[in-house]
C-alpha cells in the first residue's frame, strides 16, 4: 500500500473531526478547514491508489 493512501486517509479523518468540532462550537472557519482537509485527503488517497495500480502492472 502506498504511503499516500495512508496519509490521505488520515487527512480525511482529521477533516471529519474538524468539521464535527466546528459544528459543535459554531465555528464556520473550522468547519470550512475540515471540509478542505477531507477533500485534500480524498485526492491524496486516490493518487496513492493510482500508484498502487501502476506498481501492480
TrEMBL record:
Belongs to the UPF0337 (CsbD) family. Residues 4-55 form the CsbD-like domain. This is CsbD family protein. Transmembrane segments: none annotated. Pfam families: CsbD.
Amino acid at each position: 500500500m502506498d504511503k499516500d493512501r495512508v496519509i490521505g486517509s488520515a487527512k480525511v479523518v482529521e477533516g471529519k473531526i474538524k468539521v464535527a468540532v466546528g459544528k459543535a462550537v459554531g465555528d464556520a472557519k473550522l468547519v470550512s478547514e475540515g471540509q478542505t482537509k477531507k477533500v485534500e485527503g480524498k485526492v491524496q488517497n486516490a493518487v496513492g491508489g493510482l500508484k498502487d495500480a501502476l506498481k501492480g502492472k
